[in-house]
Amino acid sequence: MKNVILQVVLFIVIIVLGYFIYESIQAPLRFKKEVERRERIVVDKLKDIRKAQLIYKKMKGSYADNFDSLESFLAVAEIPIVKMVQDPNDTTYTKTINDTIGYIKVEDTLFKNKPYTLQELSIIPFSGGEEFEMAADTIDRGGVLVHVFQVLAPYKAFLKGMDKQRVINLVAKMEDTDRYPGLKLGSLTEASTDGNWE
Asked: Domain limits of the chain?
């Protein structure tokens, strides 16, 4: 009888230990998978912000340094619809004439079929309402003034609700290697509109 009880207890201990071993392997994998999923969603929004900033710069001459300016501009800005036709006076068939046939609102093109509205452009997904950090400036590159902008989404914002210690470890790992602990678009020191995920 004692042998049977001992075997049952050992069996239960083995199952519990097996579960803890399995969890110790699976927990970091689940964390990594969720980080990647959230990063994809934040990156999609950062790409939309980049498109909006490029349109803003094309029409205003510089980048927006805050979301209020960018959003109010995008709410009324229009992009011309251009039709290219062959120049009838060109016998080489290489010249074209650009004919503006109308205008379309930026808001209707850029934010069509998006899971957020223009007014939510500044909100970091999964953050509980925190906003992206955005800044714009002008830097000197070889005697030429270049307009630059930067948008930041820290891990601590879009990884809210996840394992706190793992988030702290991820942030520390990035800081130890002198990388931004999160997603970053553009730069205030370089003439770049690339993201740190590219």
From this structure: 32-186
Phi and psi at residue 172, to the nearest 5°: -60, -40
For residue 147, the cross-strand partners are 138
Spatial separation of the C-alpha atoms in residues 130 and 12, rounded to whole Å:
46
For 56-80, b where at least 16 C-beta lie within 10 A, e where not — what string? bbeeeeebbeebeebbebbeebebe
Stretches where the chain sits below pLDDT 50 are none
**CB 184, CB 147: distance < 8 Å:** no
CA distance 124 to 41: 10
pTM for this entry: 0.79
Interhelix angle 2-60/164-176, nearest 10 degrees: 50
94-129: pLDDT as tens digits:
666 667 777 777 777 777 788 888 888 999 999 999
73-81 contacts, C-beta under 8 A, 24 or more apart: 74/106, 74/107, 74/110, 74/118, 74/121, 75/107, 75/118, 76/105, 77/105, 77/106, 77/107, 78/103, 78/104, 78/105, 78/106, 79/55, 79/103, 79/104, 79/105, 79/106, 79/109
